[in-house]
Amino acid sequence: MAGSVHCESEVEESESLRSDANVAGPMADQVPGPRSEPADVSRETSPPMDDTPIGRAAQLAVEALGRAGRGLPRPQQTRVMVVANQKGGVGKTTTTVNLAASLALHGARVLVIDLDPQGNASTALGIDHHAEVPSIYDVLVDSKPLSEVVQPVPDVEGLFCAPATIDLAGAEIELVSLVARESRLRRAIDAYEQPLDYVLVDCPPSLGLLTVNALVAGAEVLIPIQCEYYALEGLGQLLRNVDLVRGHLNPRLHVSTILLTMYDGRTRLASQVAEEVRSHFGKEVLRTSIPRSVRISEAPSYGQTVLTYDPGSSGALSYLEAAREIAVRGSAEGAGSAVSGERMDGGAR
Q1: What is 70-123 written as a DSSP string?
Q2: Band of the pLDDT at 206, cuts 50, 70, 90?
Q3: Is the dihedral of CA 135, 137, 142, 145 positive or negative?
């Protein structure tokens, strides 16, 4: 009897609750989960795709790849550029691989020669470089043809790499006793028969025989300079070595390009270093500077350049613009030298 009274009271209580709820408004859905909004409300609240972070990144990536596909003026002859700075951590390897990828995406045929025994450029381009792989060491020490060690880069058409292995660490000592030790890389590049627009040589952070080989082989020196306090320290010694090589071994050699890297516009120090470099070196400094970027740092761990890892990032866009500057400058210099040559020929007649 008591149980029946208790049940009747619960039923009356639940009915009263339902009636109160109906007065106040409709009850919540019985099925758990988010409620669906009316169609007109959703159209007002959800932003268009281009206003979302993913949409903006996708749009930047499409624009970057479209910009790369437009093409740039091709050099009249192969430009051999040596990326050198004996100070470590300034972005030599990062600059080498990303400029090479940028130029290749613009339609050029580019070869990266990894002269650093650490092999970081090979890693960033996704090229295997364990001890048994034919490498640039075999070219320098054993006179193997360059064509037998060059490998195509898997992600970028028109980009090739001559990898470095750990054997290259001993090449400095082994080269000492060899004939024409300073010009072995130049001879290998001259004997390479495949057509190339650019050869970019990634040098080790030193001024030994490997770097001297690169300076003898190239006509242009590209110096990355980090926008920090110690950026210019030791740069004078590199410039003196360039002068020595030009005077005794390679009269074509000159510093053609200086690129500011790791630029942080939030700091006064970066602006001061950039201003000092521009005032000292003038027109050799590219207008484009490479910002500090997490994407640039992440890309090598995936065996990629930032151009393929995140083409819409600020780092990728900056390297694309730097590559455009380099190509346009080279085209203008080539046209200027051709005009001066024609004038000299006309005068001789």
Answers
A1: T--PPPSS-EEEEE--SSTTSSHHHHHHHHHHHHHHTT--EEEEE--TT-HHHH
A2: confident
A3: positive
Residue 260 belongs to a domain: yes
Q: Name the residue range of residue 110's domain.
A: 69-337
80, part of any domain: yes
Task: Report the alpha-carbon distance of residue 140 to residue 208 in Å, rounded.
Answer: 14
Please state the domain count of the chain: 1
Phi-psi domain of 143 (left: phi exceeds 0; alpha: psi -120 through 50; beta: other): left
Asked if 211 and 204 count as a contact pair (C-beta separation under 8 A), the reply is: yes
Question: Residue 248: CB partners within 8 Å, gap ≥ 6?
Answer: none
Reported as a pLDDT band with limits 50, 70 and 90, residue 52 is: low
Q: Does residue 31 belong to any structural domain of this protein?
A: no
> How much of the chain, in percent, has pLDDT values that exceed 90?
56
CATH number of the domain bearing residue 283: 3.40.50.300
Indicate the DSSP class of residue 196.
-
Q: How far apart are alpha carbons 256 and 63 in whole angstroms?
A: 29
